[in-house]
């Protein structure tokens, strides 16, 4: 059985961040994630974050602990934490996507849990599928 898991959370930045601040934060996260074997995607819109982390469970939980303790975030809400069979963001130590308020709202309100009867299936939660589809679409857009 694989030790891989995925975590998705939303949070609010303690203060609005400039593109330069976001890039600096992303650069540090990418380096640390590479060392810890984590992949994922970070969405940002006007002070709101959504992040998906995936990798070895211990590394995901350790990283999430650091994120929760970071005063740059507040109001963290965990949307999903579950084992996965395979990564959705393979090869991305941490990808970054600007999202619109509507996209962020749709993703944060998605169905992130599965019914108990579905828990043993290998299918991803509807929320994770929506996030992966959004990420793929955003990667194809020029800019």
Automatic annotation (TrEMBL):
Q: Which SUPFAM superfamilies match?
A: Acylphosphatase/BLUF domain-like
Which SMART domains did the record assign? BLUF
Which Pfam families does the record cross-reference, listed alphabetically? BLUF
Q: Where is the BLUF domain?
A: 4-95
InterPro entries attached to this UniProt entry: Acylphosphatase-like_dom_sf, BLUF_domain
Tell me where on the tree of life, at the top rank, the source sits. Answer: Bacteria
UniProt protein name = BLUF domain-containing protein
